[in-house]
Structure formats: C-alpha cells, structure tokens
Amino acid sequence: MIPRHQTIIFLTLLVASVIMGVALWNLRERAHQRLLRGQDSAPTQAPEVAPAEQATLMVANDNDDTVSPRALTLPLPQNPEARARAILGKLFDLYAATGAEHPVAGGAASVAQVFLLPAPGAGQGAEQGASKGAQLAVVNLTSAFAASHPSGLETESLTILSICATLRANFPEVAQVRFLVDGQERATLAGHADLTRTYLTADTVPTEGAHP
Q: 199: closest CA among 170, 152, 166, 150?
C-alpha cells in the first residue's frame, strides 16, 4: 500500500504538470495569434511607386547656343513641387552625363527644392501684375552646383533659360522664376547670369530652339 504522503506528493506533481501544460498551450496560442495578426497587417504588395509620365525637358546646347525640347518618360510624383524638382533633376542629370552638349556637373542632387507660390500681383490684370492663377517658382540650387558651374555669360544664360523653359513647358501656370543658392540670394550663378532678378517664363520659352 502506497503511503499517504507519497500519494499527496504524486497528486500535487500531477496537478502542477497539468497547470503548466495548460499555461504553455495558452502561451503558444497567443504567440500564434500575434504571428497571424502580424501577417495580416503586413503589406501584401510592394509600395506604390510614382507612375511614369511624359515630361518635356528644354535642353541647352553649347554647340549652337540654343535650347530645344526633348520628350522623356519619367516616374513623376503627384505633388507639384516634388514633380518640378524631379523634372529639373532629370534635366541636370542630362547635363552631368558624359558627352553632354551643355556639360554641368552635379546632376539631380543640384536641385535642393522647388517652391511653387502665387505670383506677385496675380489676378490684378496684365498691366498691373501676373494673370489670375499664375505662379512663381522658386528654384533652390545647391552651392556645390553653383561653384562647379562653368563661368561665362553664354553658358550660364543657357542654364537659366533651360530651367525656366522646362518649368513653363510642364507647368504652364508658372509665369515667374526666382533662384536661390542654399536658401540664400546670390548675385550671379557663376559670375555672370543675374540671380537677383525675377525671370518671366513667357520670355524664355522657345518655339523651335532659341538663343539666350
């Protein structure tokens, strides 16, 4: 006959084993449910990228001092300011490429920001100000781009002309363009082209190709 104290110990161990088994099963189920919830909340597809759209770049050519249109298909964001920056970035990538007809170092990183603001005097009439809905584009370039830009009136003017014309070609509402360098006003791009003035895009958009 089994002594009473051994029976009590056996029953105690049995009850403890059952409790531990139930606790472990509950922990396993909770972990499984957390895993399932994590799978349900995880993305089921790749993040959406900007759709490819056609943009018109007004590309400068040092060989004949002209600016002419070039249509390219690019991934473009919907936000207008980000869109303008992406388009100008592609223009600068062309200038930084080997064999470029208007070689300027820096590429897309040369465009720090583009701000689109209501043009001063918008809606006051043609004689007093910009037309209703007209915008001012503020292009913030990097100091590295300005420092590395070739110096000379023709080449600097071509860069300014191509930027203004590219903005107008893709954003018809942009009537005016101002330039900053690292967020500050700068007298010239590389010693010649005036960066203190406001450029009117209507005066810079060529039809076939134009001299600055």
A: 166
Distance CA 60, CA 12 (A): 90
d(CA 58, CA 167): 9
CA distances 169 to 27, 88, 174, 201, Å, are 63, 12, 9, 9
90-131 confidence digits (pLDDT tens) = 999 999 999 999 999 999 999 999 999 999 876 655 444 567
Task: Give long-range contacts, CB 8 A cutoff, 24+ apart: 77-83.
Answer: 77/50, 78/50, 80/116, 80/171, 81/113, 81/114, 81/115, 81/116, 83/170
pTM of the model: 0.73
Residue burial 149-180, b: 16+ Cβ < 10 Å; e: rest: beeeeebbbbbbbbbbbbbbbbbebbbbbbbb
126 to each of 130, 166, 172, how far by Cα in Å?
6, 23, 16
Quick check: 137 and 81 in contact, CB under 8 A?
A: no
Tokens 């010239």 belong to which residue? 188
Sign of CA dihedral 99, 209, 202, 175: negative
